[in-house]
Amino acid sequence: MFGFVADGYWCDVGHLDAYREAQYAALYQRVKLEFDYIERSPGLWIGQNTHIDPSALIETPALIGHNCRVGARAQIASGTVLGDNVLVGSDADLKRPIVWNGVIIGEEAHLRACVAARGTRIDRRANVLEGAIVGSLSTVGEEALVNPNVRVWPSKKIEPGATLNMNLIWGHAAHRNLFGLRGVSGLANVDITPEFAVRLGAAFGSTLKPNAQVTVSRDQRPISRMVTRSLVAGLMSVGVNVLNLEATAIPVARTVVPTLAVAAGIHVRVHPERSDHILIEFFDQKGINLSKGREKKIEGAYFKEDFRRAQLPEIGNVVYSSQASDIYSASFERHLNVNAIRNSNSKVVIDYVYAVSGAILPQILGKLGCDAVVLNASLSHTVPSSSDREVLLSQLGHVVEALKANLGVQVAANGEQLILVDESGSTIRGEMLTALMVHMILTDHPRGTVVVPVNASSAVEQIARRHDGRVIRTKANPTALMEVCHTNPNVVMGGSGEMGFIFPQLHPGFDAMFCIAKIIEMLTLQQREIGVPRTLGQMRTELPRVSHRSLTVRCPWSVKGSLMRQLVQTHPAEALDLTDGVKIFNRHHDSWILVLPDAGEPLVHLYADSHDRGWVDETLREYRANVQEFVDRDHGLEESQMEEVE
């Protein structure tokens, strides 16, 4: 036998509780140890090159390693240990977890006295509770729950919205779908990395013919440039030629694809709804988002790594196009009454929010002789937050009032979406904007067809009846709207205030820039027809009075299907519309409620629509309670079954 006298602190870590207690003993200095990090203030050790948002709340003692990032309003309680290269999202709540190197913690995630091993990823709103341990390189999906003392072995994946009550030892992560509601999206430089983009480009290119040509475009952000270059490398490696449009608005990219008769198009941008995400959209040869069938082919090539390897002479080529703006401008003018705009007395204020549409539309409007005041048209690499955009929108209203302009517009989503401001500075968005645009376009094109998503207000049908128009409702996703607008005759406009508006005669996608010019044209023509000025404020008063409200309820992925079945089975078939989700009509009130599962998150959206505001409020309350009760009952049964198996 041999003995050894140690000067340091010895702890026999025979179980996980002892491991955590050793960490806490060191952090609370119950034992004397030397740390590799600088003590910035009493009880707070922080490494080099670590950035902590000023609004984050940190209690001591706590240790945060080198090269970490702590987001806005994150809460780090005393007893928390974060290793090196850890990312903590906004509004995350950390109470005494032990977090190893390279861990990514999403927005609003909750960690409670648990252990997250090297390279673990804990997604947005996920919960990992006391005593749980998540092994190296494992992923806890969005809104998933890891219950107390559960152990997850390395390289496992917990699906979004799942509840884990038992140890996860066997099996591997199932392949997730690459494509979501619109294209491929993920956390910038975490999900969507250069190496991911190279493989994605090769997978997409492998589904095309050798020597095919593809356009590639992006917004102006550095992350989008990086991802685009990686996609280009992947496309070239499988023998596909690239026409690089560089930084341009997405409506321009959609117009170029069919005009130049290329095989397809790709557009890369910061996600319009999540500023920390990248969105990669793929178009077919018509400029429409790819069908589900083509998406599945790309996914198959990606996951099987079934890439076509081009020989040296067959490697794809890259050329840069300088004619994209000219092609778009020519098509833009061809589908407008240019004389009406040139002779218009309208003064318009346009806020471009520092995006690429500000480099295109002012030139076109200037050529048309339109009196447009430009705000925030310079390009910026930073992404404005939703609160920043609201501040700019308020400023836009003040400018419109001060200049006595006819209207103001804020352009969003890289040229796809817009918010209007009327002559008094009041905003017009959402369902009000949908109804206003339908009213204007059908006044201009009586007996025309408009296409709107299933969740749009019934005001659309009431307006269409006034003009002998027709309404087609589609699934509440962009691809469905594009396809229906393209395949049905006599469609004069499609879309909604939330998604943007499609003018299929121009190109098949959403286009805020053309929408602005079309509004100016319609205001001018309608003013001439009746002989008195027309304002957006007046038009608002002409819209039908409809109460349309929505709310969102949490619903695990595993419960969504059974919830939809239950709704279908408990209502008469003649009262149902199953275009998307379950829409239930109340014929006595000329009203409806729509229960629509979210395609990307564990949520269910409820939309109620009626001329009776009281009915809307009461019905939303009733269905929210019904859905919540069903989720609690079904989810509780599922958990009890898991416990029995365990």
Which helices and strands, and how do they pair?
Blueprint (H helix, E strand, L loop, with lengths): L15 H12 L10 E4 L2 E3 L4 E2 L4 E2 L3 E3 L4 E2 L4 E2 L3 E3 L4 E2 L4 E3 L2 E2 L4 E2 L4 E3 L2 E2 L4 E2 L4 E2 L4 E2 L4 E2 L4 E2 L4 E2 L4 E2 L4 E2 L19 E4 L6 H13 L6 E6 L3 H16 L3 E7 L2 H10 L4 E7 L6 E7 L8 H13 L13 E3 L3 H11 L3 H5 L4 E5 L9 H7 L3 E5 L10 H18 L3 E6 L4 E5 L5 E2 L1 H15 L4 E5 L5 H8 L3 E5 L3 H10 L3 E6 L3 E3 L9 H19 L5 H7 L4 E8 L2 H13 L6 E2 L4 E5 L4 E7 L5 E8 L2 H33 L1
Parallel strand pairs: 2-5, 3-6, 4-7, 5-8, 6-9, 7-10, 8-11, 9-12, 10-13, 11-14, 12-15, 13-16, 14-17, 15-18, 16-19, 17-20, 18-21, 19-22, 24-25, 24-26, 25-28, 29-30, 29-31, 34-35, 34-36
Antiparallel strand pairs: 1-2, 23-27, 26-27, 31-32, 32-33, 36-37, 38-42, 39-40, 40-41, 41-42
Description:
With 646 residues, this protein is an alpha/beta fold. It folds into four domains: 16-164, UDP N-Acetylglucosamine Acyltransferase, domain 1 (3 Solenoid); 184-324, Alpha-D-Glucose-1,6-Bisphosphate, Chain A, domain 3; 335-542, 3-Layer(aba) Sandwich (Alpha-D-Glucose-1,6-Bisphosphate, Chain A, domain 3); 547-645, Alpha-D-phosphohexomutase, C-terminal domain (TATA-Binding Protein), CATH 3.30.310.50. It contains 16 helices and 42 strands. β34, α11 and β35 form a beta-alpha-beta unit. The radius of gyration is 28 Å and the shape is globular.
